[in-house]
Amino acid sequence: MNTLSNRIKSIPESETLAMAARARQMKEKGIEVISLSLGEPDFKTPKHIQEGAIEAINSEKYFAYPPVNGYLDLRQAISEKFKRDNGLDYSADQIVVSNGAKQSIANVFMAILNPGDEVIVLTPYWVSYSAMILLAEGTPVFVQGTIENDFKATADQIREAITDKTKAIIFSSPCNPTGSVFTRAELESIANVLKEREDITIISDEIYELINFGAKHESIGTIGGLLDRTVTVNGFSKGFAMTGWRVGYIGAPLWIAKAANKMQGQYTSGNCSIAQRAALAALKGSMEPSMEMTKAYEKRRALVYDLLKEIPGFEVNMPQGAFYFFPNVRYYLGKSHGDMKIETVSDLCMYLLEDAHVSLVTGEAFGDPECLRLSYAASEEELKTAIAKVKESLAKLS
Question: What does the pLDDT look like over 16-25, one tens digit per residue?
Answer without folding.
Answer: 777 778 888 8
